[in-house]
Amino acid sequence: MMLRLVPVIELGYADEGVEIPERGPYWEYPADWDNFNNESYKRAGFKDAFTPFDAGSSLYEIEKISDDNLKKIVLDHTEELRNGEYDRDQASPLFGGYILEIDSEGHFYPQCCGNLGDIQFWRNISNGKDSFYEGHPAPIVKFENDDIVFDLSVREFDEAFTPLPDKRTFRFKKEDLKEAINACELILERFAQRIQTINKCNNLNIERIEDLLVWENINYQ
Q1: Stated pTM of the model
Q2: What totals of helices (H) and strands (E) does the chain contain, helices first?
């Protein structure tokens, strides 16, 4: 079994005057949603094209985001903080989170309100520790000896997981997850360095910006 924990960010620029597709969800009509997203990003001022993790989605691998696009993402995400509209402890890491792949198949995706600070959730469960999950809906996580078991079952009127999972329950080894986290954290470190460079070159003067946007989530403390 091969595990990969893929750090992604979610972009939301749906207020650029582009007509929202009539058909959904995105995984059933990916071309409609790719066209919508691409035109929205273009109108928002992004210079380079984005390649979604899955066709139609608004999740993007952090390593595949261009420097120009990342600069705009950082500037937009921190604008209200820099303008003094809220304090640092009210800010959040970049939205998105982590896709859990097992044997190259996506089994769990970031849910609503997830962010990069959710790396702590994955660290916690890799150590057999019960953990809060920032996004919603949240998986039911159980521990059976050396295995971690995910249950994505929902009741009839509960909020659904997106995209709809092919497998509602699945399991994987704690040690395999720890290895996936180690590889993921190397990617995050490189990403954090890019954000530090943006902070310095654009005189944003945000203290420990890499912690703010990547590593920290006060809800896990």
Answers
A1: 0.94
A2: 5, 7
